[in-house]
């Protein structure tokens, strides 16, 4: 239901359904991931970071989660942390041009 609401352009309602799903089972990595993406879109970056990290804890092999976490870290000027997770995203999926690009930007923002 959360995904359908998100796709219909109702992200606030999607957050409610994702949260309800997690009340039933905190171990749903995809729900944490989808909730994080929705929170990020709603500019609740700190909460999004929490859910990306939980999604990674539950499923450490999904490169997209690391990539999105890196983007969230950049929004809040946590560039060193962004670099680490962009690198992990690239390790998991070496054909990820946006991750390479954002990794370079994060290094640039740190003056490296």
Automatic annotation (TrEMBL):
Taxonomic superkingdom: Eukaryota
Signal peptide: none
Keywords: Repeat, TPR repeat
Residue ranges that the Swiss-Prot or TrEMBL entry lists as coiled coil: none
InterPro entries for this protein: TPR-like_helical_dom_sf, TPR_rpt, Ycf3/AcsC/BcsC/TPR_MFPF
TPR repeats: 29-62, 63-96
Family annotation (SMART domains): TPR
Keyword Repeat: yes
Keyword Repeat applies: yes
Designated name of the protein: UDP-N-acetylglucosamine--peptide N-acetylglucosaminyltransferase SPINDLY
Organism per entry: Favella ehrenbergii
């Amino acid at each position: 239901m959360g995904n359908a609401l998100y796709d219909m352009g109702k992200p606030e309602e999607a957050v409610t359904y994702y949260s309800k799903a997690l009340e039933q089972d905190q171990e749903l990595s995809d729900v944490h991931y989808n909730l994080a993406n929705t929170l990020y879109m709603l500019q609740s970056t700190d909460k999004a970071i929490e859910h990306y990290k939980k999604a990674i804890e539950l499923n450490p092999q999904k490169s997209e989660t690391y990539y999105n976490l890196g983007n969230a870290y950049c929004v809040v000027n946590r560039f060193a942390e962004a670099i680490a997770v962009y690198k992990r995203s690239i390790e998991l999926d070496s054909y990820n041009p946006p991750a390479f690009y954002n990794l370079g930007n994060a290094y640039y923002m740190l003056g490296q």
